[in-house]
Design brief:
The protein is of the alpha/beta class and 656 residues long. It is 34% helix and 19% strand. The chain has a nine-stranded mixed beta sheet, with helices on both faces. Strands 3-2-1-4-5-6-7 form a seven-stranded parallel beta sheet.
């Protein structure tokens, strides 16, 4: 609602409604519709807000930074209110006064900045935990992950260990601002700080029971359901958000089975000496202690006497991948544990884990992006994890089913970018109706003039905001729940993945007997035969669900790509327009520049041959065949060296 102090401008807004409507018409390219909405708004005596509400339902404002420079007062109000009325929670506003000569502007801006702390809120994580403990590591990771994803976050702790590892400061330098979001851990306050929101991150169950202390927080965050059950007497608001996972990958453990690791701080609560005894009893040949000494007396009396040429103190390490690569199993005997990070890390690295009754909790299956979404929901600043790119050309008969399946089967926070490419049927009407009925789904509409697949894909991809972009063709229907998380699973388990196809991966082979190799003409009655695809991997070729099949190239349908890498590669090369072979050119260019891999990790979808826009009467259209000749010659010209010498046939075990 517009602040009361601003309502004095109402008469001015009404006098300027004609020019305001014109501005809106230019902005949305829907002059007639906006004019109608404006007229209706005047009758309701709340013109500005009514128009905004309806317009946002149709057009989806994005989070943005608005720079106000000598605007008329109604334009300033419109821009600010447009951000306030966004229906999705991701938003940000920066207002710059340049300065304006209109003396009414600055007081209004000051009113907004005072009354709406969303304009300038920050996240502050505060912890009193031990210097190199697991919780400190978890909060360092969380701080870095927040900042990487556009959430301004600072970690405050009582020690210096974290200062060079994330955006951070000492706990004694902490100050509170009204717009802050506080995540508190291992600290007690006499009363609630005067901030926007206080979140209690309760990692330890042995430190205190929440129900037994005076509540200074708004919501408590537990790590899993068993953790919440321990605090069952606490009746306040709570949610469950697991810790972030380290960026670890599995390694070959052959020959390491009898080499054990004891991972974690050396202190009585961790029961390090018990873990050593268990490893010795199981016949381990080497036992490495990875962790700092948290309690010197405990170490001297219980652990140091056990050290010898078999039990070796390695100390705290920052290179966790190297640590897990050097051992085959981990022993953990902690008391008072609520969510064993080590257990999650063992899962990621294929290291055997031997815990106790305190570590019977299940390993979290949430991705880091999904964890970020849960935190974002608490902050009301959730970021999309997946950008789904759906390019549509005259698929009104299929579009409703496609959209409904995406709504039902897609998990997590996502945005849907629909490119209407020269549609002359009812595709746009089907889409607008879906948007109206599903206002909570973030949907962007882009229009193109029948530019076909290559350019239409790029139009959608350049609008994407998330870490993973997934291209979905308009003749494919998703038929599997949680499909997007599965399709992007290889990115999270392997650190060298550029793209994952749900359909097919394959290699290319040069045809020495090609009839088209030196042909200038691009034929339109057959496929080009310079190279042919071989070594196919996918559902239709009997690929196991538990194998990520690496090959030279992947096909669209659906196709997930690392967004930042795609930006580095400058998207699909539009020399391949209208379409065909552009995805293979992208794979080869990426191989040369980034040295990463692509592969198939299939999901279930439905696609009928008759639905495709490149086919007619059971045959491929001549223009597609002609494009195939043109583009295959271009691929051969650019990448014949890789096609001749670099065939990939790797099967990576990957359960989901």
């Amino acid at each position: 609602m517009i602040p009361k102090s601003v309502m004095t401008t109402a008469s001015f807004i009404q006098k300027s409604i004609k020019s305001w409507g014109t501005w809106l018409g230019q902005q949305f390219k829907r002059v007639n519709r906006i004019a109608a909405l404006t007229s209706d708004a005047i009758q309701r005596q709340d013109g500005l807000r009514s128009v905004l509400k309806k317009a946002i339902q149709l057009y989806r404002y994005e989070g943005l930074a608005g720079i106000m420079h000598r605007f008329r007062i109604f334009a300033v109000l419109f821009r600010i209110e447009s951000i306030h009325k966004q229906i999705y929670p991701c938003r940000g506003l920066c207002i710059a006064d340049d300065p304006t000569t209109d003396k009414t502007i600055r007081p209004i801006l000051e009113i907004y900045t005072k009354e709406d702390t969303r304009i300038k809120n920050k996240v502050k994580i505060i912890s009193g935990h031990s210097e190199k403990g697991g919780s400190t590591t978890a909060f360092i990771n969380l701080t870095n992950f927040f900042n990487k994803n556009g959430i301004d976050c600072t970690f405050y702790g009582p020690h210096t260990y974290h200062l060079d590892k994330c955006k951070s400061d000492m706990l004694n330098n902490l100050t509170f601002d009204k717009g802050d979001i506080i995540i508190s851990h291992y600290l007690k306050f006499d009363k609630r700080p005067n901030v926007k929101k206080v979140i209690l991150s309760c990692h330890e169950k042995w430190w205190f029971r929440l129900a037994e202390i005076k509540q200074y927080w708004d919501v408590a965050v537990f790590l899993h359901y068993r953790h919440r059950e321990y605090h069952r007497d606490y009746k306040g608001e709570s949610t469950i958000i697991p810790n972030l996972k380290e960026n670890l990958v599995h390694s070959n453990k052959e020959g390491f089975d009898k080499i054990a690791g004891i991972v974690g701080s050396i202190e009585d609560r961790k029961q390090t000496h018990i873990s050593i005894q268990r490893a010795l009893n199981d016949g381990c040949e080497k036992i490495y202690l990875f962790g700092h000494i948290g309690e010197q007396d405990y170490y001297e009396n219980n652990v140091k006497p056990l050290l010898d040429d078999k039990v070796i103190l390695k100390g705290h390490t920052l290179n966790k991948q190297q640590m897990y690569d050097s051992i085959g199993r981990v022993y953990h005997s902690s008391k008072g544990e609520v969510a064993c990070l080590v257990k999650d890390e063992c899962y990621l690295t294929s290291t055997k884990f031997f815990g106790n009754s305190e570590t019977e909790n299940e390993v979290s299956t949430l991705t880091n992006d999904e964890v970020l979404t849960l935190w974002g929901n608490l902050f009301n600043i959730a970021q999309p994890v997946y950008s789904l790119i759906l390019t549509v050309h005259n698929k009104g008969f299929l579009l409703k089913d496609s959209l409904e399946r995406l709504k039902i089967f897609t998990k997590g926070n996502y945005e849907l970018i629909v490119v209407l490419d020269g549609c002359s049927d009812d595709s746009e009407q089907v889409l607008l109706k879906f948007i109206k009925l599903n206002p909570k789904i973030k949907i962007k509409i882009k229009y193109s003039d029948d530019v076909f697949e290559t350019k239409a894909n790029n139009i959608g991809l350049k609008e994407a905001e998330s870490e993973y972009v997934i291209i979905i063709q308009d003749d494919m229907l998703i038929n599997e729940g949680n499909w997007n998380t599965r399709l992007t699973h290889p990115f999270r388990r392997f650190n060298d993945v550029f793209a994952v196809s749900a359909n097919c991966s394959h290699n290319w082979k040069f045809n020495r007997n090609s009839k088209h190799l030196n042909m200038v003409e691009d034929l339109d009655n057959c496929w080009c035969d310079i190279i042919s695809h071989v070594d196919h991997a996918g559902k239709h070729w009997g690929l196991s669900r538990d194998i990520f099949a690496v090959r030279q190239c992947v096909n669209r349908g659906p196709l997930a790509i690392n967004h930042s890498d795609l930006i580095t590669m400058n998207y699909f090369d539009e020399k391949f327009a209208p379409q065909d072979m552009d995805d293979h050119d992208l794979c080869f260019r990426m191989m040369k520049q980034l040295g990463k891999v692509v592969g198939c990790y299939w999901i279930d979808f439905i696609s009928d041959f008759s639905w495709g826009g490149t086919r007619e009467n059971g045959r491929h259209k001549p223009w597609l065949l002609k494009a195939n000749h043109k583009n295959m010659k271009l691929v051969w010209e650019r990448h014949s060296d890789l096609i001749r010498t670099t065939r990939k046939n790797e099967s990576r075990n990957l359960k989901f």
